[in-house]
Amino acid sequence: MRTLVYFCVAAFLSVPSLVSAQEHQAILPEAFGAWRGGETAGGFAADSLDAVRKEAGETVREGRAYGSGNKSVTVAVRQFRDPTAAYEVYTAMLSTKLNPSTVAPLTAAGNDQLIALVGNRIVTVSPIRAASDADLKLILDTLKQSTDQSPLPPIRGYLPDTDLVQGSQKYALGPIAFDAALQSLNQGKFTAITPEVGFNKGAEAMLAAYHSATGRTETLILLQYPTPQIAEQQLRHILPLLAANPELSGATVERDNSLLSLVLSPASAQSAASLRENIKYGISVTWNEGSHTLTDPPWLLVVKNIFLGTLAFCGLAIVLGIAFGGVRVLIKRVLPGKVFDRPEDMEVLQLGLSGKRIDPRDFY
Question: Does residue 215 lie within any of the structural domains?
């Protein structure tokens, strides 16, 4: 009996793993267009971004080779918990050596490889010389159908466009990605501020490099917080740290509502101010209470309407009065004493000063 109980418990505990294994479905299609899938590509090579991917929450990775005639390409997919996490890793993969691609939005090409952000997935295709733009667009559209299409973080749109160094944009939701972004922008000395950024309080970071008028490269960091109070608190943590470290003292930081902007190694104070002026960040207040517009007419029109209404009422009263009186007189002429003022229905109060009784018919 005890053996049977142990067997049942073991079978019950093994069900979830079997179900989860069956629930996992292949991400990559068997074919797309003229391309037919071949063997599954194995082992993803380790690289410097593995820690960033782990922090972002990578859930699935899959690769597959495709062939069309004598041509072949390899498609690799990494899936993350949501599009925001995928965008963090996508920007970490960007570099100034990559060029924006026209295949689809949020794609970059370089070294015969295409990198694309598709929902909560990052897709890489290589070698791209073997495939046409139409083929690349087809595989991206196929993978897009089953992805999470939640919107990307708004902070990515705050960066100024003027003098932006393409490929330098970096997004970070955690300290590992933030440090990796600083290192890629040659600002590794500023990793000292990472503990004071406040990622555990919901901070989001957006970094990018900009060309200055003097030929130097400036780095802009945008830090957004859930509330202005948290932003002010973190500002008071960052300012003393910058002032205490001579290597970091050249950086400037300012707060605008719940957004902190840091300019690292600015060419000049004027250059940093000009860069901040181009930040596309603003606060809009929406008033949801119902509103109305005044529709009262001019007072002259009101007086006119009063007179016209009074005249119409008086005219109606006259017409109705004449009609009522005319009908009464006509009936009394045609049927005297039959409908109105019948003698048997009329009573006359008498003082009795004479002995003659008053006949009501004498009044008509």
Answer: yes
How many structural domains compose the chain?
2
* Domain residue limits at 165: 153-281
The domain boundary, picked from 228, 253, 281, lies at 281
Residue 45 and residue 130 share a domain:
yes
Backbone angles phi, psi at 120, to 5 degrees: -100, 25
**Residue at 122 is within a domain:** yes
* DSSP state string for 11-62: HHHHHHHHHHHHH---SS-SEETTEEEEEEE--PPP-TTHHHHHHHTEEEEE
Helices (H), the chain: 2-23, 50-56, 83-93, 133-144, 175-184, 194-197, 228-244, 269-277, 299-334
Residue type at position 100:
P
Instruction: Please answer whether residues 205 and 223 qualify as being in contact, where contact means their C-beta atoms are separated by less than 8 angstroms.
Output: yes
Identify residue 57 by its one-letter amino acid code. Answer: G
pLDDT < 70 stretches in the chain: 1-24, 42-43, 283-294, 341, 343-364
pTM of the entire predicted model? 0.72
Query: 73 has which bridge partners?
Result: 66
